[in-house]
């Protein structure tokens, strides 16, 4: 289960007396938009509305309401020198005591958001795959670590992600939702080629990347041409993942470099897809 959902359920179970702070207005330059919210209890908080003095003021207001057992009025905060922030915009905040019904609604909203999150499938639970899955767990994505080896999945140190044990990873590619990303770094070059070919056939894939060297790139391109008859598919492959600017083969470094390009590709793909749907609707 994704870490954000687990953390929300844990917080609401452990902190029965808390306040929902929600951004209701965001004018000009602001740290977050009106989709931001946080929960504040007497000693802890969950999520963020942007940090800085704005958040400190909101937490103070919420805890004052909790101490006094009284509702608190909304706030409209200018983000200027008077509060020590230089964003220049204005943020509106609401404060709502969390009831059982509101807690259930927050969990349902979080579940729905996670269900809508783009999928990233990491094929290969070795050192780099595990590091990449851990890095991706921090992003607003639904990360699935896939392997044919049960022991490797069991040894994964990545938390807040899903795992999938399968003897046929290419079927995971076929059944993935549109806009998914596929990152291929298994223990076997032949398996890498199989998965990559399946992913490259999907025109609705947001990203297809494979770990590899110049030799592996050339071998795969030749194999695509000879065995598949589709050498043009190679143009859509990112190989090696993470680029070539930094010559560092440590798993954590490769994962850090790769996660940025994956997040950009997936979120950009989603934005472009939504823009296309809106244009189609307008044309009709």
Would you write up a description of this structure?
The protein has 284 residues and is α/β, with parallel strands linked by helices. It is built from 9 helices and 10 strands. The protein has helices at 3-14, 52-68, 100-116, 127-136, 150-154, 169-175, 189-200, 214-228, 251-283, and strands spanning 19-27, 37-40, 45-48, 75-78, 90-97, 119-123, 142-147, 162-165, 181-184, 207-210. Helix 1 (3-14) runs antiparallel to helix 3 (100-116) and helix 4 (127-136) crosses helix 9. The longest helix has 33 residues, at 251-283. The protein is elongated and about 75 Å long.
Please describe the biggest sheet, giving its number of strands, its sense, and whether it closes into a barrel. Answer: 5 strands, antiparallel
Q: What's the SSE pattern? A: HEEEHEEHEHEHEHEHEHH
Distance separating the two termini: 40 Å
**Morphology call:** elongated
Oligomer: single chain
Lateral arrangement of strands in the main beta sheet: 3-2-1-5-4
| Overall radius of gyration | 23 Å
User: Counting H and I runs of at least 4 residues, what is the number of helices?
Assistant: 9
Helix content: 40-55%
Strand content: 15-25%
Are there runs of 5+ residues with pLDDT below 50, and where?
275-284
Please report the total strand number as a whole number. Answer: 10
Kindly name the structural category: alpha/beta
Q: What does the average pLDDT come to?
A: 88
